[in-house]
Each structure stands twice: as structure tokens, then as C-alpha cells.
Design goal:
This protein is mainly alpha-helical. Helices cover 80% and strands 0% of the residues. It is globular, with a radius of gyration of 19 Å. The N and C termini lie far apart (43 Å).
């Protein structure tokens, strides 16, 4: 049981800690909105990691033939979504910066917590690296002893908790960053840098697809 707990925690942190496009978007989103919204988005990422851990634990090596044919389409979908997010973030920031004191006092409407949760859940689910990662871990750790359902449950729960704790830490850092960015120019530059980084990560993913 302890081994399953430790393995799940290590697996969850292993997939969550590398800073990529999703982590960048999560931090930027929280900086522009609120910690509450960022926390919902963070839980969306952690839910996807937990679901993939569950799929890999239950399916094991049987998943490989089904994953391989859709890896390229999933990567293309990820590239398009990332580019759309980068474009939307940049254009929204520029538009808002040009009229920070509009007559009606309007500001860009942030997404609802529920929408933020499902957007980040969908973004993470589109990443085939996650399911391949968990499948490789599960298959590689198999031995003569078949894990019990309880051990499998502990592994999946531990992976979810590890991912959630890391994503929530990223959201908290985003909220702290948002409090520091009090000037319109600072917020514009941060949004543009975030869009550039997400675009670069999307192009890198595109190059690995070609």
C-alpha cells in the first residue's frame, strides 16, 4: 500500500512539474483574474492527470495500440488550441490596454470558474504525452504480483493529489504575480510574454509532429 502511495505521488509530480504551455496559461490566467478561478483551472488539470492515471492503471499495455493511431491528430488539435489561446490572450490584452478607461467602465469578462475548469481539463486531456507517460509507468512497474484494486485506487488518488497540489501552487504564484502587476503596461507586457511563450511551445509541438 505504501509503495502504491509513493509511486502515485512520484508519478503525479513527475507529469505535473515540467513547466509547459498549460502551466504557463494557468499562471497567466490566475494573474489576470483571481485565485478562485485559478484554483478551479488547476483542479481541471489535476482531474485530467487523475483520469489518465486511472486509464493507464486499468488498461495497462492494452492501451498502446489505441493511442498510437490518434497521437498525431491529438498533437495537431493541441497546436491549434494553443495558438488560438495565445492569439486571444494577446488581442484581448492589446484591446483592453488601448482603452483602459472606457466610458462604461467595462473590462474583459473573465471566464466562470466552471468554464475555466473544463477548458483546462480539455487542454490537458488533449495531451497524448500524459496517457503515454502513465501507461509507461504502469507497464514498466508490473511484476509477477498483480496489484489489488485498493492499490490501484491508492496510486490513482495519490497521482491526482500530487498533480493538484502542484497546479494549485502554480495558481497561487499566479495570484501573487497578479497583485504585483498593478499598472496597465505591466499587465499588457505579461499577457504578451505569455502569448509568445505559448506560441513558441505550440510551434515546438508542431515541429515534433511533422
Amino acid at each position: 500500500m505504501t509503495a502504491a502511495l509513493v509511486a502515485g505521488l512520484l508519478a503525479g509530480y513527475g507529469i505535473a512539474m515540467p513547466v509547459g504551455a498549460i502551466a504557463t496559461y494557468l499562471v497567466a490566467l490566475t494573474a489576470r483574474t483571481s485565485l478562485k478561478l485559478g484554483a478551479f483551472a488547476a483542479l481541471g488539470v489535476a482531474t485530467a492527470d487523475g483520469l489518465y492515471a486511472l486509464i493507464a492503471t486499468v488498461g495497462g499495455s492494452a492501451l498502446a495500440p489505441f493511442i498510437e493511431p490518434i497521437t498525431v491528430p491529438l498533437k495537431w488539435a493541441s497546436v491549434l488550441i494553443l495558438l488560438a489561446l495565445a492569439t486571444h490572450g494577446a488581442t484581448t490584452a492589446i484591446t483592453h490596454h488601448r482603452r483602459p478607461h472606457s466610458p462604461d467602465g467595462s473590462t474583459p469578462t473573465p471566464p466562470s470558474p466552471t468554464r475555466a475548469y473544463f477548458v483546462l481539463l480539455g487542454m490537458t486531456m488533449l495531451n497524448p504525452t500524459t496517457v503515454i507517460y502513465f501507461t509507461a509507468l504502469v507497464v514498466g512497474s508490473q511484476d509477477a504480483t498483480t496489484p489489488t484494486h485498493l492499490e490501484q485506487s491508492v496510486f490513482v488518488l495519490a497521482a491526482f493529489i500530487a498533480s493538484a497540489s502542484w497546479q494549485l501552487a502554480l495558481a497561487t504564484s499566479g495570484a501573487a504575480l497578479g497583485r504585483l502587476l498593478t499598472t496597465p503596461t505591466a499587465r499588457l507586457l505579461t499577457a504578451l510574454l505569455s502569448a509568445l511563450l505559448i506560441t513558441a511551445l505550440a510551434l515546438h509541438l508542431l515541429l515534433t509532429t511533422l
